[in-house]
């Protein structure tokens, strides 16, 4: 194994050397950093040409200049990495150091949300193969697959930012919209649960009525201007979550687990007001972390109270329920800052922005306002990224699970009388993950390289924007910095994917 | 059962909303006093004077935080700022030209320090190679970075200044001596710089200081300047070249970096995101502020569509750019903005080769040589460029008022332009395209009787790549040229500008973008040995006329001189202007006083007029 890894790393270094040499020379010959200055009739152009030629060694032929650049890169081994300067005289390392976290913030949430949603839809699709839901999801997947991101981005901005902000000036939902949205919701839930026509219609009717009522209430209370969940809704939703989590995690027939989860939901309801006090007085990431620790400890304690044996799954169920309920309370708290956020001078009543990472004019120490600002800027680009990557995950998960479900061992599991939940979550789910894992590594690599178009359209200064800038301004050092980082990631990512595969599947041996 | 669940939900929402309402009573939104502008590039430095930081966004921020003896308005006219001071010619001989710059009394920097003539001296340090060498600060022309890494070295000022500026005894008047009366001499005068803050930063001081300390620091600079104290000046040079290259500004940033005399001072900045400037309460160096704007924010948005949507969403107050026809149509639909169509200073033109550029292979193509056959064919070629069609199809959808350029020296709207185009020989190239084509075909037949659309003459054209508009422009030109008997062979090059001088191209088309209007700006395109003379133009008669533009002329003589020059240029068929690059500015309807300028300062030149 070790020798295999060493060999792979050795080959990688040769590849990196070759590719960087090639890219450097291609880029150097294809571009002329002085192009604009040569045409300039400005008084200062002459001095600029002198300075750029001096700073970027433009008088050295590219193949030799490459080794000057390489010398700086190899400085890494003596603790003195130097990727050179950009043509605007900032250090390439600093530019990369700034761009990577920005890209991560943007793409991390989107990728994981897309992954979870896509897998959920894919799994349900596969379990209800050839149902209304399956066809609906297939249609949705292909629709999303065929949409270009810049177009989605423009539409999202138009309808979810510009129009929504206009709507907020006088938030009144027309009755026709309420009915249409309710019909859509009814169809979605009806299709999701499937079954007989009668069942479909009853679920449809229930969802339709609920949705209509909720929208009516929202409209009546100007909920958009003062959103929140309130203790009662938090309690109700937590109870629902408790049942849902239990049914997937252990099955509702597991009484201790069900009771532990319901107790957790009840605790969430009871802690609503104390939580407000904590959030208002100690709003910070540390508080949230400590609360999560508290939930985990409570979950373990609950498992001890409700059972003497097999406590692991019970604690797990309680903890997941607790964290999701806690998330509801947290969401509620963030929502409470909405009205204050809208009223700030920086927001000026138009809270959904179309670009940027933060409202820089919003200078406040309020933890919740700051987070609301971060979230409001994340919403649209994240949504755009989710929409375009969702389709792949849906289709891939569906295909992968269907293949697994047709295997002999699944038939065996069913034959020996296991219930469907156990068959799917224990026997099918794990094996389904295998092909997805290599896809996932590729996706995570994509995170760092940045979502070029999304970043540009939404004004995020991440890796993608940096790469585009390097190309557009003929900035060779910057381009090489971006390129080097990405090639290292690709080479490394492939190695990790291979290793991961052998870890997940014991049948695969490396290096033989 | 579902319905009762729904009812409970509704109840819960009503309850929680009531709760939320009681928890928060929204504050009243303040009336707007903020202007948000955008730029496609991110700020890289608060000093736009070094070669690396010479970006328009950097200089726009500088424009708001500093003002001197003059500014250039949206008509490209130089306007004197008499609030700051006055300047006048005190000696005007053929070989001795002196200008006196007098700073008004009572003006202050944003930290309260009175402004005087010492603050003008840094201009000389930043522009004179001779001073830099003499003071031991390094030779700007050498391979080493000079102590003051200034963009000003080696320019017109450096070439013409005689000796060093002389400061009067009361330190309020500075006199400059030039070799001769140079054209646009007023553009090369000194500008104020808060030298005391640079000295203090170099000494490691943090935070604004009392006036007495500042005065002492300025005296330290003055002494060092007079005695050419290398150590002190070098320390200041380091500050000038490096200290301003920051992009993050907050409460911990040294406020000495932002001492200025403009209407606004830098308050905060977020890397690659924005810069915020606040009203300078001590401002008295220029026209009075309207008073309704107290915050100016520059947001950096690279994508044009994104900026337009940000404008629609109220996140921006001013959008300016060179958008496509589609983008203009979209902007027109917005109800909350006013659209101001316009132009920028870039002029698109077609250049034809006469001979080889210095150091290039000999040119042997069909346009070779002045007069006779070469000139006939060049004229025929320029006649065949469908300038009206290019304007109609590519430019007018964006800028409906676009016209064919009759001159490459000055733009439409400049005083005397009408007289110029009526007399400079450009009428030869005007008219319905089929008449021009017939004229062109006759000229070709004169030298190549067998040339025809089916047996055309090959012309090699350098086509700038990565530019859809130029691709379309070339396609239109090619389609028409074949009718008169020219076959345009386009060579699309992404990196085209260094290839203009190559002898293998008979024709090139691109744009020059002057950032200031100077009399002699177009000289180097045609003069023998001129820096932009890449087509081997060698006409002593033309050189003689262009020489006259080096010294300042009144408008009448100026226009008359250009008429003489362009008559030759048009008769020789050297170049032909096609259009000015269109630009568009869209402004929040509530905002008044926005006047976009075609120069790179764009909308920021008249910040004192902005009001709500």
What does this structure look like?
Chain A has 512 residues and is mainly alpha-helical. Among the domains of chain A are: 2-95 and 462-504, no CATH class; 229-335, no CATH class. Chain A is 77% helix and 0% strand. In chain A, helix 5 (92-127) packs across helix 16 (367-405). The radius of gyration of chain A is 27 Å and the shape is globular. Chain B is an alpha+beta fold and 612 residues long. Among the domains of chain B are: 78-243, Dipeptide-binding Protein, Domain 1 (Dipeptide-binding Protein, domain 1); 344-582, Dipeptide-binding Protein, domain 3. Chain B has helices spanning 2-23, 56-65, 122-127, 129-134, 156-160, 195-202, 211-227, 230-243, 304-312, 325-333, 372-384, 387-395, 417-423, 433-447, 468-484, 523-526, 540-548, 555-572; strands spanning 34-39, 70-72, 78-80, 85-93, 96-103, 166-167, 173-178, 264-270, 274-279, 295-300, 318-321, 337-352, 457-464, 486-493, 507-512, 575-588. In chain B, strands 11-16-12-15-13-14 form a six-stranded mixed sheet, with helices on both faces. In chain B, strands 1-10-9-8 form a four-stranded mixed sheet, with helices on one face. A four-stranded antiparallel sheet of chain B has the order 4-5-7-6, with no helix packed on it. In chain B, helix 11 packs antiparallel against helix 14 (433-447) and helix 14 (433-447) crosses helix 15 (468-484). In chain B, 50% of the residues are buried. Residues 1-30 of chain B have low confidence and may be disordered. The chains are: A mainly alpha (512), B alpha+beta (612). At the A-B interface, helix 2, helix 3, helix 7, helix 9 and helix 10 of A face helix 1, strand 10 and helix 9 of B.
